[in-house]
Amino acid sequence: MNQLSTPDQRRNVIVNVLDAGMWLFGISFMSTTTILPVFVRHLTDSPLLIGLIPAILDMGWFLPQLFIAPYVQGRRQYGIVLVLGLIERIPFIVFPLLLWLWPTLASASLLSLFVFFGLLVLRAFGSGIVAAPWQEFIARIIPLPIRGRFFSAQQLVGNVLALGGAALAAVVLERYPYPTNFTICFGFGAASLMLSWGFLALSREPAVEDAPAAHNRFNRAYITRLREILQTDHNFRAFLLSRACAYMGTMALGFLAVAAITRFNLSDAQAAIFTTLMIVGGTLGNVCWGPLADRIGYKLVLWIGTVLWMLALLLAVVGTVVEVTYVVFVLVGMSSAASIVADLGIVMEFGTAEERPTYVGLARTITAPFLAIAPLLGGLIAQFTSYRVLMLAALPFAALSLYLLHWHVQEPRRMVLAKQSS
Question: Which CATH number fits domain 7-203+219-421: 2.60.40.1120, 1.20.1250.20, 1.10.1040.10, 3.40.30.10?
Answer without folding.
Answer: 1.20.1250.20
